[in-house]
Amino acid sequence: MSISRKSILGAVKFIVLTMIAVIAVVPLLWAFSASFTPLEKTFEYAYPFSWKAFFPVDFTFEAYIAIFERGFGRSILNTMGLGIATVLIGGFICTSAGFAFARFNFPGKTLLFLVVLITFTIPGDLTVIPRYIMIKDWGWINSWQALLVPLLANSLIIFMSYQFFREFPQEIIDSATVDGASWFRIYFSIVLPISKPLLFSLGLILFLSQWDSYFWPLLVAPAPEFRVVQLAITESVQEYQTFWNELLAGSMLAAIIPILLLFPFQGYFIDAVTGAVKE
Q: Per residue in 222-232, pLDDT tens?
């Protein structure tokens, strides 16, 4: 019995994807196990590598207790609060801009939209210095405004909103207009409620932009009371010693929330990227 070319390609694809999954998952499993291991035994079965590395040696919560005693819980709350504020305020700003670009004609629209596209292609590191100078001149160093305001306007979210609202059914808007609804009411009562794919996906992107932020908070808000998750993790790396089990414990906790957010809403993200509208 001959084996078809399609079957061979399918088998090769399965093997390749399995190898990629193993390469991605194995380090995470070891890191999870090592976070429950005493510091002196963190690498006991990692060099040389053994299957025992996937099971905690002398299981203990000391790494997690240590990072929370240093204020890791406060850092999680700080970052959660910033993330939620970024989603609510930034989501309103970006979706409103995207809707305006998609549905209105106004002087300078093309030029302004071109500016949005250009900022989308510029690496964020190139704008750090001018942003820092502005924050310093405004007296916002070590403040919540410094951590929040620069992340509210996201050119990627504006572009995604523009793409989504451009495909929005015109018949729905025309019907509301005939009934005498204002643009404000159309936007908040009709457009947004049936734009869940866009709202969930942009909310996820905005939240993760705040959750994963490291360099900017380090630059503008290094004070302990403003410390965010990514900065709190690095406290395990000290001048003469690295507490690897604590570093891994913080990393595991920092990864849990994005994972919990991603899996339930990944379908909405795909719909938003493809421009799907579910009535």
A: 898 999 999 99
